[in-house]
């Protein structure tokens, strides 16, 4: 997953893109011209929605890069990738909008889905300036609910680096359980050889579980 811990989002999202591209192969084999349909998802404090060009400034602010021009280029590349996903599949990263300010403070989504096994993988990212507020588990919980209820998944998993305790706590707060270690995702540049794998099954998911604190 894209962790909530200290990392540069713009250096990580190509890994998310590599995972997301696996959906193309799975859909073409299993589902023909199937298109997934995104919905606006809401919690008490958050709105999860498609990203738009008007969100560029918020995305630039996610990370403090030494070059403002480089930050804008990388943020636009991420947006362009999202727009291609929406157009081709009707499905891609959700922007996480904090209702209190209206700002887009992160993103989340399903970079990997195996429809034949009704299994999906989730990821998420919260900008450093908005961490510690419980926004990540709040967004993840509603994403899990969407995966089970609307996509029809029976198992959803996520992963994190072995030392990323903040990301691990987010998964635990939503009821996900540690299952063991898994090989890194394709194109990963992380030094550790394996990641921690967490998962939850539909029958174990509690949509009423409090995650804000």
Could you characterize what this model shows?
The chain has 213 residues and is α+β, with helices and mostly antiparallel strands. The protein has one domain (9-204): Gcn5-related N-acetyltransferase (GNAT) (Aminopeptidase). The chain has helices at 9-30, 56-60, 68-89, 135-151, 165-173; strands at residues 41-42, 46-50, 94-98, 104-114, 119-126, 155-160, 177-183, 194-201. It has an 8-stranded mixed β-sheet. Strand 3 and strand 4 (104-114) form a beta hairpin. The protein is globular, with a radius of gyration of 16 Å. The model is unreliable at 1-6 and 23-34 (pLDDT under 50).
Overview in brief:
The protein has 213 residues and is α+β, with helices and mostly antiparallel strands. The chain has five helices and eight strands, in the order αββααβββαβαββ. The chain has an eight-stranded mixed β-sheet.
CATH topology value:
Aminopeptidase
Assigned CATH architecture:
3-Layer(aba) Sandwich
Instruction: Tell how many strands the DSSP assignment holds.
Output: 8
- How many domains? The number is 1
Quote the average pLDDT. 84
Name given to the CATH homologous superfamily: Gcn5-related N-acetyltransferase (GNAT)
């Amino acid at each position: 997953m894209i962790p909530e811990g200290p990392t540069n989002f713009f250096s990580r999202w190509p890994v998310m893109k590599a995972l997301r591209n696996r959906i193309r192969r799975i859909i073409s084999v299993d589902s023909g011209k199937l298109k997934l349909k995104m919905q606006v998802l809401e919690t008490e404090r958050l709105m999860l929605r498609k990203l738009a060009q008007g969100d560029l400034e918020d995305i630039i602010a996610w990370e403090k890069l030494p070059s403002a021009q480089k930050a804008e280029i990388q943020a636009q590349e991420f947006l362009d990738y999202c727009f291609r996903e929406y157009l081709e599949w009707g499905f891609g990263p959700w922007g996480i909008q904090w209702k209190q300010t209206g700002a887009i403070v992160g993103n989340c989504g399903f970079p990997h889905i195996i429809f034949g096994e009704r299994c999906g993988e989730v990821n998420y990212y919260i900008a450093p300036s908005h961490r510690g507020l419980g926004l990540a588990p709040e967004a993840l919980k509603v994403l899990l609910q969407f995966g089970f209820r609307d996509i029809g998944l029976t198992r959803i998993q996520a992963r994190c680096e072995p030392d990323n305790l903040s990301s691990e706590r987010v998964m635990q707060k939503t009821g996900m359980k540690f299952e063991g270690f898994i090989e890194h995702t394709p194109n990963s540049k992380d030094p550790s050889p394996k990641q921690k794998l967490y998962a939850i099954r539909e029958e174990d998911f509690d949509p009423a579980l409090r995650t804000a604190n």
